[in-house]
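Case study.
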Amino acid sequence: MADVDAGPNGLNCILWTDEARALADAAAVDALPQAGALAGIPFVAKDNIATTHLQTTCGSRILQGYVSPYEATVITRLRDAGAVLVGKTNCDEFAMGSSNENSAYGPVLNPIDRTRVPGGSSGGSAASVAAGIVRIALGSETGGSVRQPASYCGIVGVKPTYGRVSRFGLVAFASSLDQIGVFGTTVDDAALALEVIAGRDSRDATSADCPVDAYRNSRTNDLAGVVIGRPREYFPSSLDPRILRLCDEALDRLRARGATVRDVSLPHTDLAIPVYYIIAPAEASSNLARFDGVRYGLRIEAKGLREMYDSTRTLGFGPEVTRRILLGTYVLSAGYYDAYYRKAQQVRTLIAKDFRDVFDSGVHLLFTPTTPSTAFEFGAKSDPYEMYLNDIFTATANLAGVPAISVPIGDVDGLPAGGQLIARHFDEQMMFRGAYALEAERKAPA
Amino acid sequence: MAIGPDDVRHIAALARLAVPESRIPELVSQLNDILSHMDALGRVDTSNVTAVAGAGDAAMPLRADLGPPIALEHPLASFAPQLRDGFFFVPRLATHEDSGDDELSE
Amino acid sequence: MSTVMNRYEMVVGLEVHVQLLTRTKAFCSCDASYGAAPNANTCPVCLALPGALPVLNEEAVRLAVRAALALGCTINETSIFARKNYFYPDLPKGYQISQFDRPLAEHGRLDIEMTSNGTPVTVRITRVHMEEDAGKSIHDRYPGATAIDLNRSGVPLIEIVSEPDMRSAREAGAYLRALKQVIEYTGVSNANMEEGSLRVDANVSARLRGQTALGTKTEVKNMNSFSGVERALEVEFARQCEVLAAGGTVHQQTMLWDANRGEVRPARSKEQSHDYRYFPEPDLPPLVFARAWIDRMRTELPELPVAKQRRFAADYKLTPAEIEVLTADSPLAVYFEEVMRSGADAKAAANWVIRDVRQLLNDGALLATLRVRPPALAQLLAMVRDGTVSHAAATRIFAIVAESGDAPVEVARREGLLQERDLDALTGWVDQVLAENPDEAARFRAGEKKLLGVLVGQVMKLSKGRADPKAVNQLLSARAAAGE
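After joint prediction, the assembly is written out as follows.
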């Protein structure tokens, strides 16, 4: 089993670890007569996924010290396959952020360049894989929180179809968008991990009753007959030309494998950020109401109940979370619900329809840059809305519920950039097929 | 639609967040900036659109009416801030109606 | 004051919460029953631990649909759950999963029979929807603290909302009693207000008689009984009339009923108008029913109270009072009809069920385990009808059967209670009495008919009660007629 780096080697990516326990778990797996699909493989999980022996803080002070009395379904499935949990990773508080600068436990550093962010909100998991601590890590996606850090850290990041992976045990941020995603050193790592965790869970009423394919079988490297759409809205004239060139080179490689590339349009793309930043905070404001100091987590003692609520939540939540709860409460409040929340859900339907229409027109996959830039420096994006724009290419897939993957496609000034492949609902098979082909043409990391 | 300081105070109260007065102006500004980008939605014609509840199409799966419940691997005492005689304790409300929101509990 | 009130009309709508009789809770598999140690029936879901998710109980759905159908509602083929957001310590998620825009059922009705003036009143039911219960907050047991028990958190409820169709406290009371009866008939709930499985919030307003527009309503809460609801409505209506008569305006607010003082007072809630920020529950896809399934549920409904009462009136020719008692609860009605099916006649069966069977129940027996089974009662009634036993004897036999469960015929034989009708035996006794009472005998033969009773009494005494008095009566009369 790989050496577990108990210290974060300066990256601050792993928050909680228990080396003795991990070794014991590994030994127990070794002793089993039959090896599971991930026997002995170490993994880390984002700290918003419930585990029973390491804390689950969601990068927040309000859950400092909280050890969940039950574990998430995905953790059970990974353990049943023989994988060994070696740490919980740092993240933006309650998964709200695109840089991992919003954690109560300090920022995570990008292993490629430590003056830069790893991306977020699953920055800790991304950095752990990029630094070679583990090959497989769990993150979570709401607007791009796996694919974006994967792009910034030069690794593979997958967001499954909404409902493909159980959310039971994932601390909810925006329930209609959240999905647990996987990071892998290679496409194969990610495919294997997804095979293990995907599938219907009776404890999650939104989890789909859809058979899970053997995603690793998609490694055909043959894309004959595959039509790839290049949506013009993701290649604006303002796009960094160096990223544009990497994308064009990636498309050439896919053509070399037999794919045809077609120009397409997803007309409502520019509405994704406004829609996302109404729906996600609205659902979050409701999901985070349970953090009140009554049953678990931080409690600031007070004479009266109201004061206890107010102090606990004010001190327990950081500024970004506070901002989003306020925004979410506002857009749901009396008099504003129709103009904001209801309207946003309607426009979301149009965004989803864009994807459906394109896939119905004979396109199998969409290819786009994952992010408009490479990893930025700490403190570079201080304006909240400017930070939100990092999600501009990723949030549409969350809103539509379609599966998407980010695969490294090259570097810009030594910083990794990711290319994104998006497939139809529940067609992870096709998504991986494209991803394997894209990866095969580049040197695989050591 | 612009948010004013009183709006921020009101929604903070709804959300049980005691935002310090010093932060109100900053929040007013940030929230207005964010909301200004939402105005684009107003220009979209959604008269024929029914929002789908959630991203999936399937109907609700139901559960049989039997146990056992999901087990707790650690007892309540391991995470409850204040547990006594099996109850979760909270500071007593001044009078039990004076909570701001009391419903079925009456 | 009552003249003031007479100028105004009371308008009442009721919101009734009913706890459904499921084994487990609405959204998790915790035990839903009452009485466990505090927080013993909890799990990650009903504790609202981070990451937990709701999954709906199919039996709760079935019971809710059955209740809604029994109330004449249309079931929506698709309905949506919604979050009702507010903070309270016994509401662990900080929101209640309920239904808002698209409820389970709508447009029902309940007919209430107003016996005083005879005309039935129809109360329209706006909607029936599903939701989960909150936990319990105990405010007065520990100084300075409120104790929270989440055993009840997540228990499935239906909320039954009526239109403001009631015009008096009595109508409200009648509605509640009829509603409770229908609910009991469907078996979906115990519907017991004292036990908390049925809760009532009342909306009441006042308007000048003849006016059609509705006045401002207040919500009245904290009643513990149906009579409490009636009293609270009277008091609040009186208060509103006083305000209006003095030229003031009624403010929309929540009032709490104080049963001890017989008063209502405003709930001291700072946020008088709640902003629940309802939105569709993202953790639960829409609830979808097939039309065929709904139709099947409708055919499986038990016969409801009004239908049963009308049938009893038509088929059994019983008085309204008798019918009311017999149909007050479904099991008793079933018992009664089983007695009938075993051959008893309606009147006799009704008498014995209303009086004797119910007395046993009052003394603590349970109908389901009653030792007097319907066929046995029928047998006993047949014996009375054909004179095999006297009425008095039957009462004794009934009591013995209630203890032992033995067959009435057996008991009668064993206890020597069978009436004697054998002509020889009777003749023997009659002869003896006539011989032992010559004066009375002579006078009776001479025509003093009133001595018949005395002589019959003597025969009864001589036979130790075993003689059939009717037969003795006939025999003596025949003798007198024949001049013997």
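Observations recorded in class. Chain C has three domains: 2-292, 303-414, 423-482. The CA atoms of residues 87 and 94 of chain C lie 5 Å apart. We will return to this complex in the next lecture.
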